[in-house]
Fold this sequence. Notes:
It is built from five helices and 32 strands. It is mostly beta strands. The longest helix is centred in the last third of the chain and has 26 residues, at about 425-450.
Amino acid sequence: MNTYLSMTNTITSLVLAYLTFITSFTSVAFAAVNLPNTTTVSQTGVLIGGGGAGGGQDPGPDDPASKPRTPGQPVLVDRTASSIKLKWTDNSSYEQGYNLYRGAGYSGPWTRIAVFGAVPGNTSVMEYTDVGLPRDTRYYYRVGAYNFFGESFSTPQTFATTDGRIKVNRLQVRLRIANVSDADTDDDVHVSVNDFNMNHGTWLDYGRDDFQRGDDFTFELLPEGVSDLSDINDIFIFKTGSDGMCLAGLSLLVNGGEIYTQDFGATSSTCHWIDGGNGVGNYFVVGRSTLRAHPLWQNFVAPVKISVQKRELGDLVEGIVGNIIHDDISLDLPVYIGSANPYWGQLHDDRAVEVFRRDTSSVRVRFNLGIGLIVDDPSVTIGFAARFTGVCRTATTPPSIRITLEEFGATPRFGVISQALTIGLINLAENTVAAKIDQSLKGMLPQFERDFPIDIKDIACVTPSVDADGNVNFTVTQVPRTSGTTTSGTKVTGTFGTTATKTLTR
């Protein structure tokens, strides 16, 4: 049961993250500039008092007859496109001083960039700002505490300056499966972009039949740990099992725009095989340096969107839920205790998530999941509404779109009931499933009511409206321009899908 509550919490958070992307008109994109690495920079070091920072490895004994205790690992405080601010604990009472080192890799080579004297006690927090750095560049840092007996080093930690061009709110990967024998797979596929991590990437599990021969489909990736382009370290595709898959090509999309693409070829000898058997690896990696060398990455300009197509919103929810239901879950119900294998239920035009018009300013989102029990296999329909409200510019605040999620609900549906489960127990289970999910979601609503600013000086108001098909379109009213005694204003409208989208001039 806790898994379902967690699932609905995650859905709500990431839907709002996507809606933030839709309203991120302030993401100004700049052409990529190759900046030189800096070897001589201006830095500042500050002692900021007691408290904890860093940690990780065992610092060892605080012994005056040996080298200092290992200092705390560096922790990121803040970063910009040209600076990284760090802090760490001193940990030792018997040091003569500290060295801060910066390196290009985990093993160095290391360059000492700052020196600190001894500090009182062993709980003080040291802080340092490394400035004059190139944008979107990753460095490793370690701290050395030294005295007459030697120097003790912290575990290296890596941080990157920001790219600074856009805020990343949506990530997608497009996989093109070759149309050749055995190129399709039924195995599970996992994709991560912030180093390989089975817990923070995305399992690609849609209601459709994924990874078929000749298939070309764009999957949503959960943007955990990625807020800036500099957070994207690679594209790591991992496939379980030995049922091979062959990629004809792949692309990475950020905020709806293609930032990297790679074509392998459409034949069995040119497509890239990902296979756990036959001596072929079950993963494929595009590294950080390869991504950044691509012309699309260097010249990336995120598209400005002034609408939300219902299929986009549905795909996002389907990607979120598919990642969550990938693994079995444990249920503890009055009528069933044990493992469940949730799966997608009813499809709508090859989609598991249905989005439709609720009224002129809101949409309804709905999907069905089978619970996957050994007996009686119940299912549950989950739904919520997303309401869009425009807020005009004032003298002190930019225009914004207010997003409110409301009317969450879960309706369980049961099939044929076995003799082991009485009607009374089923009714109790039904009420338990629906009530707990509904109660949890309603309790979360206040924290999600917020405004998303559209800080472009020429825009006065943005008015959302939902059309008959369930697409959300925005009408943009520009700030009136004064010429002599004449004041004029214009409107720019756009939709996505059935008609061409018009873009805004910044």
